[in-house]
Design a protein that fits this description.
The structure holds 2 protein chains of 2 kinds.
Chain A lengths: L1 H32 L11 H12 L2 H34 L1 H16 L5 H8 L4 H25 L3 H9 L4 H11 L1 H25 L5 H10 L3 H29 L1 H7 L6
Chain B lengths: L18 H26 L8 H12 L2 H33 L2 H14 L7 H6 L4 H26 L3 H9 L4 H39 L4 H10 L3 H29 L4 H9 L1
Helix pairs in contact in B: 2-10, 3-6, 3-8, 3-9, 6-8, 7-8, 8-9, 8-10, 9-10
Amino acid sequence: MTGHRGAALLRGVSAVGLALGLPVVLFALWWLASADSTNIFLPPLRRIVEAFGQVWLSDVFVRDVLPSLRRLAIGYAAALVVGVGVGYVIGRWSLIRALTSPILAFFRVLPAPVMIPVLLVAVGIGDATKLIVIALGAVWPILLNTADGVRGVDDVQLETAAAYRLPSWTRHGLILRAATPQVFAGARQALGISLIVMVVSEMLMSTDGLGFTVIRFQRTFAIPQMWSGVLLLGVLGFGLAKIFELIERRALRWHQGATGREESW
Amino acid sequence: MTTASRTPAPARGLAGGPAASRRLLGVVGLLFAAVAYEAVTRAFFSPLHVPPLSAVVPEALHLLTEARFWVATGRTLLAATVGLVIAVAAGIVVGFAIGSVPWLLRVTSSTLDFLRPVPSIVLIPVLVLVLDVGQITVLLVAVSCFWIVLFQVLYGLRDVDQVAVDTARSIRLGRLARIVHVTWPTVLPYLGTALRLIVSVALALAITGGLVMGAAGLGELIWSSQESGEFTGMYALVLLTGGVGITLDLAARLAERRLLHWHVATRREVAAG
């Protein structure tokens, strides 16, 4: 009775302990080891944390962090729409797949940051360039994974849908739904890429944004502030990945149930 | 997820037919794209900013005869390769160390989970203060690829057949022999997948290092031609960079196939193709 509940509680506590244990230890080690640091490049963690509060919890958040996030969101959303749409068409019709496969092979291996100077010249230095670069970097994994997923849909399911004479829109919906695990795999990869491209594009051509601000701190030797920016980028990467994981888990609950597979981390 | 399961898709429709017709269609697609690009650039853009393909391709061919292109490519590939080797070695060692000790995996998994999505380029501003740009580029490649290798090794270790382990134990194979005969062959397909993934990641970061920090190589060459206004040269370099990427990708696939020639998925692919 209470023993049962106590055991469950204990398990919960130990799971939290396991999850937090090492990070807390590492953070404490960094704190202690850097406490008396006089090396200007490796400031004490205490000063980095102070700088974090001063820098990012002020109007800098509105001026630099929000524009970055907005660009990331718009670019990524555009990549999702285009990637899933075009990927569906390519995956569904083999003629189009055969026609496009060499071009896709080229863009798949072309590193996304290379497009920054290209678009800088073609479009200019404005916000549009950054949005296009982020979208261009993120679109390929989504597109290719969607195409693969759509192509890999079970033939029996397709034939069943045809035999039941489901209207074609319903059938398209079913195929897309069957492909969602792969779409999510691509979208997860694309999220990491779009964050990287966002930072690189801001480092190379910007007057605001996270990447720009961190580089500016580094050039003006505001080292604790720079470290705080690096930490913020790290937390951002982690936070976005976690949010994505939550959405994915919800959206693919049926899939895990259907296949009996579950990611444990 | 990037698991190693690859079932050949059933042949369907036109492109599922002979490979020759598929290749022909690919060439048609390429030609069509080239014509479309040519038309769009000529119609809507100034040739100074977005040069048509008829200007880019000759420039690219010209670059192929120039030493500076090959030197830059060599440097980029060297940085990518060194970083890659470090990543594979470290990923295998750390992966096996963590993955074969259950409590270690439990203690570290949250930390690994936290560190993996942190983009490695956030290290650039920190590292620029202490290392030279060439070393940083290698380090960026190594860090990014390390995570991919590490997680593939961990996935692979999770996939090891417990019955096989118990069998090996019951015929009194030692720890080392168990790793060689049971664990390693299970992990190898996952490493093959990792190899295919990290080659393009390595190229991307080696080039990013050149773009952002001016580390000598293709990225730096592209950025400097942009800054000096040689836009046709820059487009040609981007085209060639894609070529380098395709070559590397093919090499990685070949290497994977050699590495896994004994594996069921590869044998099936060979039989089908």
